[in-house]
Specification:
One of its GO terms (cellular component) is cytosol. A divalent metal cation 1 binds at residues 13, 15, 100, 212. Belongs to the metallo-dependent hydrolases superfamily. TatD-type hydrolase family. Keywords: Hydrolase, Metal-binding. With 270 residues, this protein is of the alpha/beta class. It has one domain (11-260): Metal-dependent hydrolases (TIM Barrel, Alpha-Beta Barrel), CATH 3.20.20.140. It is built from nine helices and eight strands. An eight-stranded parallel β-sheet has the order 1-2-3-4-5-6-7-8. Strand 5 (133-138), helix 5 and strand 6 form a beta-alpha-beta unit. It is globular. The two termini are 20 Å apart. The structure holds zinc ion (2 copies). One zinc ion binds next to loops. One zinc ion binds at residues 100, 136, 162-163.
Length: 270
């Protein structure tokens, strides 16, 4: 078996349209490419920002994007509809997913009923288009899981729980309806033993990795702006938790990425 010079990595969740990357986006993407990152999925958080998200994907060949509205954007995105999401999902072949959407009960001032309505509109868009859904859940895993299970029983869809950080019960419920789980820099933190223990027992063919850049920089880059090149640290922590080589976990999570985001063409080395 030939040893790869650099691993083949896929960052399943980052926010390259954010102002944090305005000054040096080209170098950020160049550093990611040199670190072996062959796919970056830049995730839409607000409908009104979709054009800039799509522009990033159109300008860089290794970048893909999604369309959707983060639950914390309820006040900005006041009229979310399945129709609007579906129309934008078909507006460009670089759009490969719906989201991020879901429930965020961390901040108590965001009306929960509106979050639930928006979440349903996104799930329906995923069911209609067949595109996978990217799910954000914070302080709301029970409610999130219940909605997903009910919707899945109506009509199946595929998707991923992004920035998965437990608990084990949530992992089991989501795996049961065929969803993937994406691991962020949290798995690299010293205190995250509980998460590494959960991950050790999860099927690797259902795991993805993500930076969530510019947020959640992994160790040893904590405190700095995060960027897709740092996915190597997350991959390393995953490989250690699973007791496999880094090249293997990189390859498997990339295969999983292509399986889930099946509009992304398979990578051809050039
Ligand atoms: Zn999120
Ligand atoms: Zn995000």
């Amino acid at each position: 078996m030939t040893k790869l010079a650099v691993p083949i990595l896929s960052d399943s969740h980052c926010h390259l349209d954010f102002d944090d990357f305005k000054p040096d986006l080209e170098s950020v993407i160049d550093r990611a490419r040199r670190s072996g990152v062959i796919h970056m999925l830049t995730v839409c958080t607000r409908m009104s920002c979709f054009t800039s998200v799509r522009n990033v994907a159109e300008n860089f060949s290794h970048v893909y994007c999604s369309v959707g509205s983060h639950p914390s954007q309820i006040f900005e995105d006041t009229s979310i509809s399945t129709k609007k999401i579906v129309a934008l999902a078909y507006s460009c072949n670089k759009v490969v997913a719906i989201g991020e959407c879901g429930l965020d009960y961390f901040h108590s001032n965001i009306p929960r009923d509106k979050q639930v309505d928006s979440f349903h509109a996104h799930i329906t868009a995923a069911q209609e288009t067949g595109m996978p859904i990217i799910i954000h859940t914070r302080n709301s895993y029970e409610e999130t899981a219940t909605i997903l299970e009910k919707e899945y029983a109506n009509k199946s869809f595929s998707g991923v729980i992004h920035c998965f950080s437990g608990p084990h019960d949530m992992a089991m419920r989501m795996l049961d309806i065929g969803l993937y789980l994406s691991l962020s820099g949290i798995i690299t933190f010293k205190k995250s033993h509980y998460l590494r223990d959960i991950v050790a027992n999860l099927p690797i063919n259902r795991l993805l990795i993500e930076t969530d850049a510019p947020f959640i920089s992994p160790s040893p880059n904590r405190g700095k702006r995060n960027e897709p090149a740092y996915i190597v640290h997350i991959n390393k922590a995953l490989a250690e938790a699973k007791g496999i080589r880094e090249e293997e976990s990189a390859l498997i999570t990339t295969q999983n990425f292509l399986h889930l985001f099946n509009k992304v063409p398979a990578y051809k080395a050039v």
